[in-house]
Amino acid sequence: MKAKTTFYCTACGNETPRWQGRCPACGAWNTMEEHVEAPAPAARGKTARPQEVRRPKPLSEVDCGSEVRFPTGLGELDRVLGGGAVQDSLVLVAGAPGIGKSTLLLQICSELCRTLKVLYVSGEESAGQIKLRAQRLGVSTDNLLLLCETDLSQIVAAAEELRPDVFIADSIQTLYDPENAASPGSVTQVKACTLRLMQLAKGSGITVFVVGHVNKDGAIAGPKVLEHMVDCVLYFEGESAHNYRILRAAKNRFGSTNEIGVFEMADRGLREVPNPSELLLSGRPTHAPGTCVACAMEGSRPVLAEVQALVARTTFNVPRRMADGFDFNRAVLLMAVLEKRGGVNLSGSDVYINVIGGLQLNEPAADLPVILAAASSFRDKPLDSSVAAIGEVGLTGELRAVSSLSQRLSEVHRLGFRCCVIPRQGAANLEVPSGLEILRVRNIREAIETLL
Ligand code: TYD
Ligand code: MG
């Protein structure tokens, strides 16, 4: 049978039967890469699985065992995984080169090796380099076995012989399956290797962590094409200018994808940041126009972040709008509401919105802080720096209730804010921390007039 050829976009994972210069799904240019389907398992000789007839059975008769979890030693990572790593699962840790993926996985070895046997396979660094890094991170244990190899058949053979509890592969782009003619890092190889590691996880009861590099220009097959195969996809993000990193789950078969983990890259590896609000608010300008503090829920945890806005007279025919860390279309909508309902004339001004610290505020509760920051910049009057704002803004300029208000208020209070602006509605049995003044407002005009 002729091998089937398909094409994948390395940026978004879209599949097409023919090569195209531009991906029809995400619009990226020159990201399509050829992928030759592997022959059916029956033709693969000894790797074929025994044919057994599977019959459907009632859900009540299915034996699922119990989900076994173990802590990784980094509370922030456990939180993103949904309460610890799950046995027999495959976790993909994706991120830009140099963000700290290898550091994260080597660091968890120190805790894992207390009770478990770990096999760390690196196709990128030599054993000496890994040892130097391990010394720097304070990892020294005999339960950690290193293997510097890129040939997948040898790696799998080693794993099957050693039977480790945890297997770490750094990185998937450097591994290659000798049965496959494609070059390492290509979509075909990356998929074949991931599938093999998935079989290793499910068949031998090994927990597998795989590192995948994300490359913006799509030169290397990105983890996007692997997302549907693995159990859990974690993205490790951060800005090169800052030394803190955010770990977020894009997919998790064993937990929520809302949680984030926050780390700081220090000279001895990654340090957990259990209170990200403090970090995000550090260095905040006081008495400066165009800044307001927002409180967003990141999973189960409230996080405070600073929203900045700059309203400047435009030199363009059409005024510019720009948003970083906040949805662009939402920002445009809010500026229209601010103009029409808040009485702030923005038609001759460019508006730039920025959320400090690389955080994405994708929550309606951040609407009011964006409006207030823009109004403050327009009037060139600072907001009181001990005030935080929470509220969703509707098209008539009204403020609408948000979820988990009590939790947000206690975080606002914990960080030493004196006052918090909240919507008048929907706050029936609210627990207000003592010492925190609550300002209930009905609409954005009332908020602007009270605070500015
Ligand atoms: P690394 O884990 O090698 O990145 P990745 O595997 O994602 O490509 O991290 C490399 C960066 O981390 C490098 O720029 C140096 C920095 N780093 C520290 O700042 N402190 C440390 O203790 C370590 C080990 C790395
Ligand atoms: Mg690395």
Protein model, in words:
The chain is of the alpha/beta class. The chain is 24% helix and 27% strand. The chain is built from 10 helices and 23 strands. A 9-stranded mixed beta sheet has the order 8-7-9-10-6-11-12-13-14, with helices on both faces. A 7-stranded mixed beta sheet has the order 17-18-16-15-19-22-23. Strands 2-1-3 form a 3-stranded antiparallel beta sheet, with no helix packed on it. The site of magnesium ion has 4 residues, from α2.
The gyration radius over C-alpha positions equals: 26 Å
Q: How many strand units?
A: 23
Number of helices: 10
Q: Label the structural class.
A: alpha/beta
Strand % is 25-35%
Q: What is the multimeric organization of the chains shown?
A: single chain
Please tell me the overall pLDDT. 88
Straight-line distance between termini: 73 Å
Hetero ligands: thymidine-5'-diphosphate, magnesium ion
The major sheet is characterized as: 9 strands, mixed
User: Strand arrangement, largest sheet?
Assistant: 8-7-9-10-6-11-12-13-14
- Helix amount: 10-25%
Enumerate the spans where pLDDT stays under 50 for 5 or more consecutive residues: 43-48
Shape: globular
Summarize the model shown.
One of its GO terms (cellular component) is cytosol. The protein is an alpha/beta fold and 452 residues long.
Question: Which helices and strands, and how do they pair?
Answer:
Elements (H helix, E strand, L loop, with lengths): L4 E5 L5 E2 L15 E5 L32 E2 L4 H7 L3 E2 L3 E6 L5 H12 L5 E5 L4 H11 L6 E5 L3 H11 L3 E5 L16 H18 L2 E7 L18 E7 L5 E9 L7 E7 L2 E4 L3 H6 L9 E8 L2 E13 L7 E4 L3 H14 L7 E7 L11 H13 L7 E3 L2 E2 L5 E2 L4 H10 L4 E5 L13 E5 L2 H8 L1
Parallel strand pairs: 6-10, 6-11, 7-8, 7-9, 9-10, 15-19, 17-18, 19-22, 22-23
Antiparallel strand pairs: 1-2, 1-3, 4-5, 11-12, 12-13, 13-14, 15-16, 16-18, 20-21
Helix pairs in contact: 4-5, 7-8
The structure holds thymidine-5'-diphosphate (TYD) and magnesium ion.
Magnesium ion (MG) binds next to helix 2.
